[in-house]
Write a structure and sequence with these properties.
InterPro entries: Thioredoxin-like_sf. This is Thioredoxin. By secondary structure, the protein is of the alpha/beta class. It has one domain (2-103): Glutaredoxin. Helix content is 44%, strand content 27%. Strands 1-3-2-4-5 form a 5-stranded mixed sheet, with helices on both faces. A hairpin with a 2-residue loop joins β4 and β5 (80-86). α2 (30-46) packs parallel to α4 (91-103). It is globular.
């Protein structure tokens, strides 16, 4: 997963990928750093374009995406939010939603 350093990078990534996953974490969040490898393994297995960002480094993204806690996983379909999980990530549900997203046209 590539790290995003500016909101413009995120917008460009979403414009260039019809279906995508964005993982948001903060620097001091131990749960965020513990969940990151699990999310990374999932996106590697299903081959969905994905990026991550640190909300404290890209505050504009946090504001634009209405991020009030972390970690957050957001699935996008044609630049629109398809699914979001925050704080406690249900990895089985995440896999299911990614599968559903990838099956849509």
């Amino acid at each position: 997963m590539k790290q995003i350093h500016a909101y413009e990078e995120l917008q460009s990534f979403l414009q260039n990928n019809e279906k995508a996953l964005v993982y948001v974490m903060t620097t001091g969040c131990s749960v965020c750093h513990a969940d990151y490898p699990k999310v990374k393994d999932i996106v590697t297995d299903v081959n969905i374009p994905s990026v991550y960002l640190l909300a404290d480094e890209v505050p504009e993204a946090a504001g634009q995406l209405s991020l009030f806690s972390s970690p957050v996983v957001i699935l996008f379909n044609h630049e629109k939010e398809y699914h979001r999980q925050a704080r406690i990530i249900d990895f089985d549900m995440l896999k299911l939603r990614i599968s559903q997203l990838l099956q849509e046209y």
